[in-house]
């Protein structure tokens, strides 16, 4: 699973390069999740998860508070959660998650991004069966053996534990996300290099230089769309 973490790091670095876009996407996600449930993260596990993710991207507190206050205010904006699946150059596979208040607009924009950048939309299920929903939690300052001991003491299961670039990455079932985090917090670890529920590919593909350049244009075009929250793929982007 090591390469998969490198792809997550690449996505984070790309998003970190455009912080205003990152912050606006988090603000929308926090608003929607807080509006759907309680605006209190202790009573709303989905909101708690989003806030944990926001911390790893250094989203400012004022942006978080503003989104939660907006949800408390009972704004009447309604958003749908959508997932699109498609193919990029050389058979690469892509999953696009979106939040939108205009389904037709979002579908049209996503389809256009695929079509203009060497890809094409697929039907529901055409790609996702090749990915696994996975909790990915990374910490620094501990060895792989120390992390394993922490999880064993907390009686928490993990799919895999890997040490990469001074970061220990725990891959676990999605329903173990909070259990893994709580195990770390009980051990005095409150900062996470990554805290994601991700769609990880079962197998990755390597593209030639031309196909990879086209693929990266496609990913950029999708991530630039206002309604798109996350993009997952199966391409090995290298170091």
TrEMBL record:
<comment type="similarity">
    <text>Belongs to the TACO1 family. YeeN subfamily.</text>
</comment>
<dbReference type="InterPro" id="IPR029072">
    <property type="entry name" value="YebC-like"/>
</dbReference>
<keyword id="KW-0963">Cytoplasm</keyword>
<dbReference type="InterPro" id="IPR026562">
    <property type="entry name" value="Transcrip_reg_TACO1_YeeN"/>
</dbReference>
<dbReference type="GO" id="GO:0006355">
    <property type="term" value="P:regulation of DNA-templated transcription"/>
</dbReference>
<feature type="domain" description="TACO1/YebC-like N-terminal">
    <location>
        <begin position="3"/>
        <end position="74"/>
    </location>
</feature>
<feature type="domain" description="TACO1/YebC-like second and third">
    <location>
        <begin position="79"/>
        <end position="235"/>
    </location>
</feature>
<keyword id="KW-0804">Transcription</keyword>
<dbReference type="Pfam" id="PF20772">
    <property type="entry name" value="TACO1_YebC_N"/>
</dbReference>
<protein>
    <recommendedName>
        <fullName>Probable transcriptional regulatory protein AF332_18835</fullName>
    </recommendedName>
</protein>
<dbReference type="GO" id="GO:0003677">
    <property type="term" value="F:DNA binding"/>
</dbReference>
<dbReference type="InterPro" id="IPR048300">
    <property type="entry name" value="TACO1_YebC-like_2nd/3rd_dom"/>
</dbReference>
<dbReference type="InterPro" id="IPR002876">
    <property type="entry name" value="Transcrip_reg_TACO1-like"/>
</dbReference>
<dbReference type="InterPro" id="IPR017856">
    <property type="entry name" value="Integrase-like_N"/>
</dbReference>
<dbReference type="Pfam" id="PF01709">
    <property type="entry name" value="Transcrip_reg"/>
</dbReference>
<keyword id="KW-0238">DNA-binding</keyword>
<keyword id="KW-0805">Transcription regulation</keyword>
<dbReference type="GO" id="GO:0005829">
    <property type="term" value="C:cytosol"/>
</dbReference>
<dbReference type="InterPro" id="IPR026564">
    <property type="entry name" value="Transcrip_reg_TACO1-like_dom3"/>
</dbReference>
<dbReference type="InterPro" id="IPR049083">
    <property type="entry name" value="TACO1_YebC_N"/>
</dbReference>
